[in-house]
What does this fold into?
Amino acid sequence: MSSSRSVSSRISLEISLLFLSECHICSNAPHTMRIIIWSIASAFLFSVIFTQRHRRPIFTCGGNFTGDTGLIGSQGYPGVYPPNNKCVWRITVPEGRVVSLLFRVLDLESDSLCRYDFVDVFSGHINGQRLGRFCGTSKPGALVTNGNKMQVIMVSDANTAGSGFLAVYSAIRPNERGDRYCGGLLDKPSGTIQTPNWPEKDYPAGVTCSWHIIAPQDQIIELTFEKFDVERDSYCRYDHVAVFNGGEMNESRKIGKFCGDSPPMPIYSDGNHLLIMFLSDLSLTADGFIGHYRFKLRSLSTASAPLTSMSTIPPTTPPVVITATLISAAMRGHSVLATFSLIHLYKEGNLAIQQAGKTMSTKVTVLCKKCPLVRRGEYLYTDLDLQKS
It folds into this structure.
């Protein structure tokens, strides 16, 4: 389609130039007539050139795209995208490069969990790591793959629609330094992760970073944060760091969601995959963070769940006291899975107090023979409580 258009435009342009250079009528016509003829021909020539340079691209449902850069958009953009549809775009850039995708427009049906209309972005074409699911009108930052392939999937249901999305992809060098690029696949025994611009200045707004750490099968991953300063919110709804067991965003496998200026406690994966997602919205920013990971042999002492003491004799004084607000709780067999927003955290020895406002959300699993009924509200937990459960 595009090649036939370019051929017809080239023919029209050649005809116009031929007309202007070989028009014998013009040379023999009166002066006024020559001006009219030249004006008509010039206008026609200008319209051909303008149309060629400013033709609006036609966006279809998915497709295969190659090259260093390009533009993809929802079907019919900027018109309303069709309902009950699924479109797949597969992007491939030259070997040795990775794909960066930046949304220019995002206008899909809004939902807090993006259950209805959404755009999924994956690193790779088949069974790749999902970099994020997006809906509504809040655009993510640049999304960067681990290799030279990316897959974008848009799904719509039967109801409300919008104008869809418009995004630009480009080929960049792996680990290219810049204020909008971060994340990647990490498989060395130890390493460092940090927000863009660290430590010279604040991280930029509208950034999404995804680090996928893979250890050998018989090892787990320890993650510690040396410095941590991310926009504060009681429920970490805006800028935040989310950590997941496994290689993709899965709420059932989320270890925790963190923000504020208090570094989280050391985090341990329950397997050989760990995913760290950092997201900043389009408003306030902060210093950011620097963290370190290392591989460790599996051991009972570093298992992230369940939170029960290995000692049979409870200590006389609790080493940890937590004040928290319960967000949700669910029974799972002989255990309770609860999600808390921590308010205060006291630790034995060198007293450490996490003040109100410097909160985080985390999930706690407690094994119990007879699990109690848990309702929403504020709770105070000690290490003794966990041992008695």
DSSP finds four helices and 22 strands in the chain.
